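Key result, reporting period 2: structure in, sequence out.
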């Protein structure tokens, strides 16, 4: 069976001028800043103009634990948005921006797939409107100002061994995880150890996605904890007078980006933190704008529900004051069989026993989502090798848990293939939604971590490194104990061990490092062996990407 690639489908699509997409949303020319013919920035004036308009319904799309078999969360999100138009509902999709690291690494782009993708997919996956470059520049400006302060006399008394703010780069580059800077002559800076993280894991990215306005952005930037002095006093970004220049670099990046799907459904793409090493949600500004512009805002959170959805509820909803009306949990027959122990090259064969064994992962995510009090719909993202018996088994399994499961064929059929899913989601949005957090604000940091570990990750408890315990003590002493928790861990397992598939239990969560993102407003907890700067695989996707003399790009997926 032959298939067209995503980029072939994208290149054959009829894409409309972005001004027409904006017009159907009621966005005026004065409120739109075009970046070429098919993408644009939405002015903050739109949100101000519509501030008294009632919000539409908010639908969160999440997924079971990621596997090499694929789940298709973004494809389902886009397909659901397109399907809303098919059943006569007005929807705006709200997504994160792709990071160049995965695009050139192993995962590929993040614009959906098949006949459920956002356009122009090549531009969205490569540079887009420059938001990530602005975040990288603002981040590294602060790092440069820190090192310049050391070089120019260090009047603040910063201890070079206690600088906690690091440089970033939007690329998978393991060689930069730990490095030494300032080598050379007297005028080449102070020699010290430095670390890089990928841009999507930087606190600047988190701040951009949680800020409500330019003034709020500037204040949050100023609150970034960058270092400690020799006598252990905290040093903030504002102590270096860096927040104004950083905010100036981000003045365009804070504006949401408007594009369209392959069926010309409006899509706002803005911000891009990873859910395994950051909070994994698009910007609060983008979500709130979409809620004002349509009857339904269809958004997503990264990776599995134990990561993106948990952080959407406990961090984004807390900070932005929003609440989903329904949540869609994406699963595939293939991924569940993989969780049941079947190798990737054997997933095409029907195997109900493996499906049953792997369903513990689906069950765990359903139970976790139920604990948040939001109505759930399971979307079975259809693959051509799925058998009728396998699909029926999943439907019966979900029904036994009190959750409706609907097949989505959005990849192959676009919005038409997700129409039944859209109807079920609309019905779910009319039921009672009562958001409940995993932990209250007044829990201690260790109590919050323990709540997440035992209630969401199914661990029996938590083990801390001595340095993590010392950091928690310092963070609480500085008055940050009431902040929510952002746990960074592997995306491939509900646990902190990527090799433990299904629904692991009887283990203890290993916390190796804890630090405060005082500007973003949460405490970051690194569990297991997760890295904030990924590496490239043995055969990177970059090796298959090319461009011809006409400017046509191939190899993107």
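The corresponding designed sequence is given below.
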């Amino acid at each position: 069976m032959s298939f067209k690639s995503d980029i072939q489908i994208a290149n054959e699509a009829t894409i409309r001028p972005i001004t027409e997409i904006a017009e159907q949303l009621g966005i005026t020319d004065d409120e739109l800043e075009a970046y070429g013919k098919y993408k644009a920035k939405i002015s903050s004036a739109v949100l101000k103009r519509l501030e008294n308009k009632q919000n539409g319904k908010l639908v969160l799309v999440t997924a079971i634990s990621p596997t090499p078999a694929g789940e298709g969360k973004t494809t389902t999100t886009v397909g659901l948005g397109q399907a809303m138009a098919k059943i006569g509902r007005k929807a705006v999709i709200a997504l994160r921006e792709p990071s160049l690291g995965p695009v050139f690494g192993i995962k590929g782009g993040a614009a959906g797939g098949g006949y459920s993708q956002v356009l122009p997919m090549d531009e969205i996956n490569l540079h887009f409107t420059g938001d990530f470059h602005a975040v990288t520049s603002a981040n590294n400006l602060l790092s440069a100002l820190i090192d310049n302060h050391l070089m120019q006399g260090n009047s603040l008394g910063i201890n070079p061994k206690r600088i906690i703010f690091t440089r970033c780069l939007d690329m998978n580059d393991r060689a930069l995880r730990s490095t030494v800077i300032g080598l050379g002559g007297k005028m080449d800076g102070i020699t010290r150890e430095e670390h890089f993280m990928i841009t999507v894991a930087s606190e600047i990215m988190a701040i951009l996605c949680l800020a409500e306005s330019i003034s709020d952005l500037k204040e949050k930037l100023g609150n970034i904890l960058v270092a400690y002095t020799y006598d252990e006093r905290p040093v903030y970004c504002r102590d270096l007078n860096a927040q104004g220049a950083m905010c100036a670099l981000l003045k365009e990046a804070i504006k949401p980006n408007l594009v369209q799907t392959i069926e010309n459904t409006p899509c706002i793409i803005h911000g891009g933190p990873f859910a395994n090493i950051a909070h994994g949600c698009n910007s609060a500004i983008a979500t709130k704008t979409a809620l004002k512009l349509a009857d339904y805002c269809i958004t997503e959170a990264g990776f599995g529900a134990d990561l993106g959805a948990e952080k959407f509820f406990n961090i984004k909803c807390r900070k932005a004051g929003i609440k989903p009306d329904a949540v869609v949990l994406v699963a595939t027959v293939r991924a569940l069989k993989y969780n049941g122990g079947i190798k990737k090259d054997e997933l095409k064969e029907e195997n109900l026993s493996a499906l049953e064994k792997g369903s513990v992962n689906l069950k765990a995510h359903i139970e976790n989502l139920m604990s948040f009090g939001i109505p759930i719909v399971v979307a079975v993202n259809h693959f051509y090798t799925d058998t009728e018996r396998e699909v029926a088994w999943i439907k019966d399994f979900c029904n036994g848990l009190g959750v409706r499961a609907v097949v989505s064929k959005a990849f192959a059929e676009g919005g038409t293939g997700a129409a039944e899913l859209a109807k079920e989601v609309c019905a779910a949005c009319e039921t009672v939604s009562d958001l409940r957090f995993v932990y209250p604000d007044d829990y201690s940091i260790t109590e919050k971590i323990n709540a997440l570990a035992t209630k969401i990750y199914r661990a029996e408890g938590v083990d801390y490194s001595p340095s993590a315990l010392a950091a928690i003590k310092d963070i609480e002493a500085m008055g940050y104990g009431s902040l929510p928790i952002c746990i960074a861990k592997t995306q491939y397992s509900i646990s902190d061990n990527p090799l433990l598939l299904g629904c692991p239990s009887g283990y203890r969560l290993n916390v190796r490092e804890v630090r405060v993102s005082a500007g973003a407003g949460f405490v970051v907890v690194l569990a297991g062996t997760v890295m904030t700067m990924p590496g490239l695989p043995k055969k990177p996707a970059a090796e298959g990407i090319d461009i011809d003399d006409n400017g046509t790009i191939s190899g993107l997926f």
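The mean pLDDT is 95. Residues 131-151 form the longest helix (21 residues). This case is discussed further under Risks and Mitigation.
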